[in-house]
Design a protein that fits this description.
Chain lengths: 210, 25
């Protein structure tokens, strides 16, 4: 029975051995196995092909497969390391590992920087920050005048852009986060420590013994 | 007061960044 199950899961594109993934991430082997249960659920919610499509990601986040959101798009793009439009199991586990409570803060800081560097220039630019603020306001049905938005962006830039060149580089971002640690709050998911309880894998064999 | 908000604090409240919802059954 164990062998049949093993053969079955290894046919799924992008499947990687839990031992390999555990070795590269903050997860244990049993946590990776539990994540596979979550992954199976997410990757078969619309198209049953063992891959998480954008619509499936949106469905899981917003309970609606058609809800477009700038930040969800950015997260999806960062998870989709191969840039082939879908999230494979290995990509899912490696990316989620950034959000593990035991993962180094430096990894979380870097991930957040890449998340907010919308145009991959190596900087968070003023226009990008404004675009994100506007997207958040739209998502929240909040209406602020352009002057107020400009003031919020200006104030943040005056605090973060230490060399005053109009963009936030990695070093400035690190310093800004050190002064405002709450900015990384959403980079840690306490759930990941209890993932084996939330998604027991019910695997009767151990991959380690293979 | 909105003008005192840190733009990144504001952004970090986005539902699109709340991956905790992935774990909801």
């Amino acid at each position: 029975m164990g062998c049949l199950f093993t053969k079955h899961i290894k046919q799924i594109p992008g499947y990687e051995e839990p031992t390999v993934l555990a070795g590269e991430t903050s997860f244990t082997v049993s946590e990776v196995e539990a994540l596979y249960e979550l992954f199976k659920k997410l990757s078969s919610s619309i198209i049953v092909d063992g891959l998480i499509h954008k619509e499936e990601f949106q469905l899981a986040l917003f309970k609606n497969s058609n809800t477009r959101n700038l930040f969800a798009d950015r997260i999806f793009d960062l998870f989709d390391v191969k840039r082939n439009g879908v999230i494979e199991f290995g990509e899912f586990v490696r990316s989620l590992s950034v959000f593990h409570p035991n993962t180094a803060i430096s990894e979380k800081i870097e991930f957040a920087f890449r998340l907010y560097d919308l145009r991959h220039t190596g900087f968070i630019e003023r226009e990008e920050l404004k675009e994100m603020v506007l997207a958040l306001l739209k998502e929240s049905d909040l209406c602020l005048s352009d002057d107020v938005v400009e003031t919020i962006v200006d104030k943040t830039f005056s605090e973060a852009d230490l060399n005053g060149d109009g963009k936030i580089d990695r070093e400035e971002w690190k310093e800004f986060v050190a002064r405002n640690p709450s900015l990384l709050k959403n980079m840690t998911l306490p759930y990941l420590k209890d993932i084996t309880i939330a998604f027991p894998s019910f695997v009767l064999y151990s991959e380690v013994e293979d | 007061r909105p003008v005192m908000m840190n733009a990144f604090e504001l952004i970090s409240t986005s539902q699109g960044l709340n991956l905790g919802t992935l774990f909801e059954k």
